[in-house]
Amino acid sequence: MISESVVIDRLIDPVFAAFAELENWPIVLPDVLGVETLYDSGRHQEFLMTVERPNGAETIRGIRFCKTNERIELFQPQPPPGFRRMSGKWTFESNRRSTTVTADRSFELDLPPSISSEQKTNAYDTARQKLSGYLRKNLELFRASLEIGT
Amino acid sequence: MTVLQVQKAMDVPIKTLCDALWNIQQLQRIWEPITQFSVEYDDGIHQECTMQVERNAQIEKIRIIRFRCDWEILFFNPDPPPMMRFHHGVWRLQPLGTGCSLVVAEREYELLLLPEESIEEFGLRQEQFQLSFRKRLSLMLARFEAYYAPAQEAVHVTTVA
Questions:
Q1: Among A92, A139, B104, B124, which is least packed by CB within 10 angstroms?
Q2: What pTM was estimated for this model as a whole?
Q3: What is the pLDDT of residues A49-65, one digit of tens each?
Q4: Cβ contacts of B42 on chain A, cutoff 8 Å
Q5: Nearest to B15 by CA among B4, B26, B3, B2
Q6: Mutation test of the interface with chain A: which of B76, B106, B107, choosing the one with the most A Cβ atoms within 10 A?
């Protein structure tokens, strides 16, 4: 599992709402090319999200369970190319005037069975680094977007 | 929106119940209205499946998405039963001492207004539906209790013998 956190100098309500509102994602994150909401009750969401990646656009199907101001649980029945499984959560912790957001991800790579254990280790290390980088960047972009005007 | 809650204490260990509620194949053995199912995704914590469920002599096709968190299984139907605008809920389990558990079935739903149905008729149908849904959930919990009770008795008899 990988985990990244950011402290955002805003109260928990607008911070949670920024992450929970799917239409907000293409506004905050420049690599999100589009979001198609398939279902959204506020608490439960199903969507297609297309993101720009070095090898071209990738579309994932995501499902989220949102618990207001506590957590957003995520899994991707249709994960990005190269992944067999991707799931995780964002948790939100209020620190009076600021909010700590932590993003956790668990994943399994879609690797050929013939791969050596060394190649497998390298593939997981590379994936962890890339994913941590995306998580850090995204959390930072949400922070910047929310703190504009401070 | 209508909120329903039905609960039952059972002489069944919490893990057995939670696993049975999660495993659709086992669920189908216990709850016969599930006529067909297909698990599209299951990582042990998140699950997506489609089901055909019999209700009032009609077959309903539903898609269900579930999330297991401790002793709770939360779910929603992105494609809800045909008479509903939405349907979601939770199975909440609590340990009650040695080998016993409390199962709470909580449901939130909204029925669709039928074409040419008056508000009065809709209100009456909502009341009737709520009663029948409550009975259905109680029956489902009774089926769980009955399914595990004979097995436990058999184990007991074997031990005595």
A1: B124
A2: 0.89
A3: 999 988 899 999 999 99
A4: none
A5: B26
A6: B76
